[in-house]
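Q: Is it fine to ask for two folds in a single conversation?
A: Yes, each is treated on its own. Send the first.
Q: Here.
A: Result:
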Amino acid sequence: MNSEHKHKINAVWRLTAGAVAAASMIVGQVLAPVGAQAATSSQSILPPAYSYPHRTTGKPNTYWNATVQAGERAVPWVVMNPNNGPGDRVDENYTGQIDEVTSKKMKYVGYVIHHYQTVDIKTMAKQVDKWYSMYKNVGGIFFDTVRAQTPEQICYAANLYNYVKVKHPGALVIQNPGTHLPDDKLVPYGDIFLNAETTATEYLNNADWNPKTAWEKDPANAAKQYHVVRDVTSKEQQAQLIAKSRERNAGWIYFTSDTESTAGGHDGNPYDDLSRFFGDMAASARSAQQTQPIIGKPVPLPAGCTDEFNLKVTATSHATPAQPPRAATGSSASSSAHSSARSQASAQGSSQSSAQANAQAQAHTSSNQPQQSAGLQAPNTGFGKQGIGLIVAIIATIVIAATAAVLYLRSRRFRSRKYRQ
């Protein structure tokens, strides 16, 4: 074999090796996002602050003092809950605490509960309006115990969302199913979704809390996802929770060492005592980018849904940008969420009996863990752009390999003719 022939053969092999390497790179780049999940870089604290503010009682106001001292940078929003809602009278301890919170540029949403869409929807609308008439600078509404498994449930939630948006422009709406949304049907009807509420051990060790739908997996939706975790046992465990929650695209978090257990003298409300590790959580939030809520506008109701408030929302009827919350003229989807509200009622001398409270609390227990119903979707495996990209990569690989094979075979024929001459 002469040197020219060797040179041609070596060139063919170099081309083949290069083709294989290029094909491997293409396939690797396409497959990488399929297995990897991006993490959010923004995260802020949103406390379900079901702790009575002791402004005039003479008792320590430890919870609220620490929350305010953490600052708007770490805690831009809080949930306030006088008595499973605004209550029947203005509470001066809440008005004083609201004044302090808003003076620090922090905002708040008012808590209401409809027990999985079972309370008359007009009654819920009145609860919403009471918040705005009784307390000033209300930033929005937190709807507790939400289900999203039937058209009727979606319709109920959608009507209340539009009611808040139309009657109180610029309001933030938080929906609390406490677990994964079974699909994306409720997504248009909320600004933030509390889609994980559980214990620290469950959150870290149960893969069912991993994002399930394409919507949950998308980091672009981090500002709409809110995770609340109780029973945190150490700073180290909380650091793991923070890292895991960012992997799961939770732009809003609240982690606490408090528990809903009543053992050892605990009151069963995991959201009324200050977490032992609150300072570390606040420091972590200050080191991250602040989450900015995306406050939406009214949205047309789903097909077949009755317009309960005759709002006549269409795609263009409310196209103007949302306005800031207006001041009033007047002065979790879990058993724990209602236990906390029950605790507040007790602090204010509510007339609610313990038997009623226990009966209501029992209605919440099913949402404390991920729902394993037929309506809950498995992780999204839709084809999408990644699937198309994979096909393109496979075709490119086949073409490159075929080209290399043809060149190789031609080199073999060239060598055979050379030896026969």
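Q: Second one now.
A: Result:
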Amino acid sequence: MKPIKQELEDRGLLYQNTNDDVFALIDDGKSDFYCGFDPTADSLHLGNFIGFMVATHIMRRGNTYTALTGGATGMIGDPGWKNSEREFLGMEALDKNQEAISQQISEIAANMKDFTGDDLKVEFINNKVFYENMNFLDFLREVGKYMTVNVMMGKDTVKKRIEDPSQSISYTEFSYQLLQGYDACRLFTEKNVILQIGGQDQWGNLVTGTELIRKKYDADSFALTWPLITDSSGKKFGKSEGNAMFLNKRKTSPYFIYQYFMNTADEDISRFLKMLTLIETEEIDRIVADHMLKPEERAGQKLLAFKVVEIIHGTREAELAEQITWFMFGGWDKVAELAQLSTEDLETYQNAMGGLDYSDENFFEIIVKSGLAKSNSEARNAVSSGAISINGNKISDSKYDFSEDFLENGALLIQKGKKNIRIIRK
């Protein structure tokens, strides 16, 4: 196994760090670390996945990962590069989100253990417990005493909001960095966590933690960050049409993530394979060299898409995403393929491709409800023009009765043109 600094640099996963001494400690398995997520939603997103890959490389060297969910900090909201304050969430919503995120991390960690064969150690903590018996005066004495307003105002995320006359920052958000710094202190004293990791936009918060530990305990601790990722066109990584790609398959299907990476530009394949998979970097260089000989075959995109979905959702979901892609874009008999699916796989196909569960809708209603038309009049025009087919047969009768067309497994394939395909389940 490579030294961790070389591993992260070779993969493009190291942006900055406080002190190079940490790398030897990581390699020796003496650098337990944490990475935190505020439960502002009930799912992590693809951008967070990069952090989990960094964590995996560190865990593989024998270091324990403390996954911190911010039940306390989530009540405040990180001002990091936002133009306005976040909406506050209630305790019930935060607790629900915290449980969901912890479950996601557990599932991805289990997949990683299977793929690597390593005993990856993950522990969980909700930072709400740090503040349950602390009042405001206690916090000022424990934390506020050690941090100067001068330094706090110099943080880029704060400075941006102060200097822009069209923006402002509340005392609540201004204090966020102190809360995150105190998280680092508590983990340092209670769990011997000496390393914080985060995206490059978290640098100011992370070094608040290292500074607080230095001043309170006269001790060294460390921070490192990974870069924020854009693709070769400058678009922010992990978003499709401006929307976040979630790791919860009920919010973003594995097929949709698969397709996201199938659309990767050739010039991004090497970088994303190195960042987002565990394939050795030297092997990736060979894979990409072969890919570039016949880029039209999209071998690099297929491997990247499969590997990312496999890590996030498991091998079976990656295989299904691959099968659905063949189903959608292949030239073979789609109805025969559909007829062979189990009830569970049929549901996965429907979640990926769209459609609905049949409940006595008429012909126009299933066209509209499945998203193939916006209105009955548009559906009527599509039928009269011969654009609609059921189970591969074009339908021109606007009063067509499809009730006998459901396959034995309860599926029906409705299609508009070649690419707009939906599944109706009975």
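Q: Anything structural to flag on that second result?
A: Two points. The first strand starts at residue 16 and ends at 17. The two ends are 52 Å apart (CA to CA).
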